[in-house]
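Protocol step 4 of 6: record predicted structures for both targets in the notebook before any analysis. Target 1:
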Amino acid sequence: MKSNDIISKSDLTTRMVQLQAEKQVLEQQMKGSLEDLVDSISPARAIRNIVGDVLSDKEIHHNLTSLGLHMGANLITYKVLGKNKSIKGYLSSALVQQITTTLINNNMPAILTGINLLIDTVLEDDEEEDLEVEPRVAGSS
């Protein structure tokens, strides 16, 4: 029924009911589209996608892991031994850095395996959370 076909009050009432139904359908579609848009531009999801893409390249993954482990070992050595406070501190921190570098380089496959297992566990947990959907009560927003 078009607005030109409205002749009586009952036609008007019928048309109003049709338009309200169409409005509700369109609002639900827009709400769903908006939720999808917000979900797709979520910073957490964007970071997760970027990290997932970067970590899928084995060479980049290996290089970043190695760099992070070395930087972490150097930071801990500096904080614990006080690298620049004395000659004794400098020599002991240099020795500890050499030992940690050797340990990291010699055990890199085992370290990478552990990190991969950790990442896989975290990603599986995130996917399970994404799959959980809260039931909605009719009439609630």
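Target 2:
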Amino acid sequence: MIQSSVHSLDRPRDWPWPAENVLLIKAARAWCRARTRHLATQPALFVCLRRFHCEQLIPVIDSLMLLGEQLRERRFMPGTQFALSADETRLLTLFEQAERMDASKEAIGLECAFRLALRSTRMVMKRERMLAGA
């Protein structure tokens, strides 16, 4: 269970979650900032993800976030520097459950696509971590 707590996402030693979760939240927030400012999201994701050598996640996270907004029919609301928003908490909970979700079972349309995007994001993150030797 993901809990919102007082930890800075800017200092790795403060991360109470796995690195993949922090990376997803940082990317989601960069994506949200770009959308709010009416900027292209993929360049914003590039700036965020290149620090972690994870540029290959740009289209995966971009699709995940777009599908999430379309599914919920509203904008994704980011948290603050020290606290996760309800949307971030939900995203992380679903992200952690992605491997156990059957994308086609009881899901149609956007929900099925969103589940597949969650699984794809998780698989790419795992693959990249293995290639990096982490």
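Step 5 preliminary note on target 2. Confidence is low (pLDDT under 50) at residues 1-7. Residues 109-132 form the longest helix (24 residues).
Proceed to step 6 after PI sign-off.
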